[in-house]
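Submission checklist for the structure archive. All mandatory fields must be present; incomplete records are returned to the submitter.

[x] Identifier: GNAT family protein
[x] Organism: Actinoallomurus liliacearum
[x] Residue count: 225
[x] Sequence attached
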Amino acid sequence: MRRAKADCTIAGMTSSHWPLFALRVSTPRLRLRVPTLEDLDALAELAAEGVHDPDVQPFTVPWTDAPPAERARGTLQYHWSEWAAWRPSAWSLNLVVALDGVIVGTQGVSAKDFAIRREVSTGSWLGRRYQGQGIGTEMRAAVLDLAFAGLGAEYALSAAFADNEASFAVSRKLGYREDGIDRHVVRGRPVVSRRLRLDRAGWQARRTVPVTIEGLAACLPLFGL
């Protein structure tokens, strides 16, 4: 019943000027989509519950250090700000991830000058109760299919702090290779992040998750294509 209600709500969000509302990326277990307000509310609740061990900060922007209510509100504001900032030359597509109709996290893919560079970056998080179930690998595989098969990307980039083994495990499964390091300041101390790069050949060699993409054709001009 909950899933049917969500689909009905999503179907009501249509716009000939913003076709991203109709974009769907699906795997055997997951459905990724541009969120409705109901979806964002569910995502905000997950953020308030916690995304990681409080003793560890896996993000370069430490948004999860905020109190629960502020984390929830900031989740909504972040998604709204990315919608408002969208340009074909610089876009950030942040999709909610639904498992059996329940929002479990978010998966993003972004790019600058994509039509020329053909390069995307990805980022994501899952609610703590949904971690360790292979969902992270499957949802990143979904947006990689969107990037490479749907949009014609040549490279996909990712990055994680040196101690974020869970993120590196996902990247290894999907064929990424080391691409150098960056240094950041997080919680007042220097932290090293490791960059990872996946090329088209590497993606094709490790492409094992079936992915279905719907509603992309009408969105292509928004991606600069």
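[x] Structure attached
Curator remark: The mean pLDDT is 87. Residues 162 and 205 are 25 Å apart (CA to CA).
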